[in-house]
Design a protein that fits this description.
Three copies of one chain form a homotrimer.
Chain A lengths: L2 H11 L1 E2 L2 H9 L1 H20 L4 H28 L2
Helix pairs in contact in A: 2-4, 3-4
Subcellular location (chains A, B, C): Cell membrane; Membrane
GO molecular function, one term (chains A, B, C): proton-transporting ATP synthase activity, rotational mechanism
InterPro entries (chains A, B, C): ATP_synth_F0_csu, ATP_synth_F0_csu_sf, ATPase_proteolipid_c-like_dom, F/V-ATP_Csub_sf
Chain lengths: 82, 82, 82
């Protein structure tokens, strides 16, 4: 077996795939924790003042939208930076 | 043993696999912690105001759904970015 | 097969993609958690003092803007450092 053929086989066994998948995985770390904090503390706020349920849920949704956007942008980014 | 043969064996011992598997693993870190925060604080809210159990559990489920979606998208992403 | 051709095939099987995608993913970690903290504690502040909703929301937006800017800069950075 020549040197070039063995190098080819070595490449076949190496790690493969698109690094963009890892990028999305990392991009979910912060929003995953952040949205958890919003809804976790929001449930506590509603339990403390049940009559403020409407107001609390409105701000929970605003916070959820702006945080979740970061993760969804992470889904689009591998298409942008090809 | 020739140089080419030893290089081939070295390649057999190297790390192999698809980087998408690591991507999913990373994608579970944030949602895993986030859902934990939601249910942890939700249980505390129910313990503080047991009469608000229905309301608290509803918002816990809403928060759980939007956070868990991030991890499930991480399962699909390696199929998208091939 | 020549050495150059095998090296080319090896590149085809390796990890592909732009490392800038990973950079954006990392750039969302802090803002994702940070904005979650802002809105989570903001909802708690509004539930504690519902009459201070306007003031609390104003400062929540200020904090959100300066934190989210970090993530959006992370989207532009791969274009700057080409």
């Amino acid at each position: 077996m020549s040197l070039s053929a063995s190098a080819l086989l070595a490449a076949d066994e190496a790690i493969s795939g698109n690094i963009g998948t890892v990028a999305y995985g990392i991009a979910t770390l912060g929003p995953g924790i952040g949205v958890g904090i919003i809804f976790g503390l929001g449930v506590q706020a509603i339990a403390r003042q049940p009559e403020a349920e409407q107001v609390a849920f409105r701000y929970m949704l605003i916070g959820f939208a702006v945080v979740e956007a970061l993760a969804l942008i992470g889904f689009v980014v591998p298409f942008v930076f090809t």
